[in-house]
């Protein structure tokens, strides 16, 4: 598959800058996700862009995730199944993943709900996410 220079630059940006906004323990998996999305065509790469932008905004936004913010994230362009994939990836990598899932208006399938529970449980086991206050990667000085 041929990749344009612009696509490659976007890929590099999402992978390197994305590390600033994700759960630090998920850095290697983040890189793997970026490579996977790059190699699996324009539709999957577009989903990576959604994931990156949501994670970045969540990390840089103070206060609760409200309906206005969720409307900005979920503009209705993605079909339900693709949105579900995006939502689970955001939950997996964002320091505010659990809060994000609770704010989502679209219901998750039973399978995705079970996967979300496992993701949140694993995230909460990471040192950067345990304890009373979860720190974003940006605020932790990463």
Order of helix and strand elements from N to C terminus: HHHHHHH
Distance from N terminus to C terminus (CA atoms, Å) equals 34 Å
Give the total of beta strands. 0
Question: Averaged pLDDT, please?
Answer: 86
What is the CA-based Rg, rounded?
A: 15 Å
What would you call the structural class? Answer: mainly alpha
Low-pLDDT regions: none
Strand content: under 5%
The tally of helices reads 7
Query: Major sheet, described briefly?
Result: none
Bulk shape:
globular
Helix content: 55-70%
Overview of the structural elements:
This protein is an all-alpha fold and about 140 residues long. It has seven helices and no strands. The N and C termini lie far apart (about 35 Å). The relative contact order is 0.16. The mean pLDDT is about 85.
Task: Present the secondary structure layout.
Layout: H1 5-18, H2 27-39, H3 41-60, H4 67-73, H5 80-93, H6 97-103, H7 110-125
Please supply descriptive tags for the structure shown above:
globular, 142 residues, mainly alpha, 7 helices, 64% helix
């Amino acid at each position: 598959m041929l990749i344009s220079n612009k696509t490659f630059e976007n890929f590099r940006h999402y992978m390197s800058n994305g590390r600033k906004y994700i759960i630090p323990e998920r850095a290697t998996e983040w890189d793997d996700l970026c490579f996977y999305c790059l190699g699996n065509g324009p539709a999957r790469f577009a989903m990576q862009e959604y994931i990156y932008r949501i994670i970045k905004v969540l990390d840089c936004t103070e206060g609760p995730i409200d309906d206005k913010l969720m409307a900005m994230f979920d503009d209705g362009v993605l079909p339900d199944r693709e949105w579900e994939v995006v939502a689970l990836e955001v939950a997996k990598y964002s320091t505010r993943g659990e809060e994000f899932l609770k704010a989502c208006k679209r219901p998750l399938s039973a399978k995705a709900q079970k996967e979300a529970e496992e993701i949140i449980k694993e995230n909460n086991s990471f040192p950067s996410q345990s304890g009373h206050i979860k720190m974003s990667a940006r605020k932790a000085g990463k």
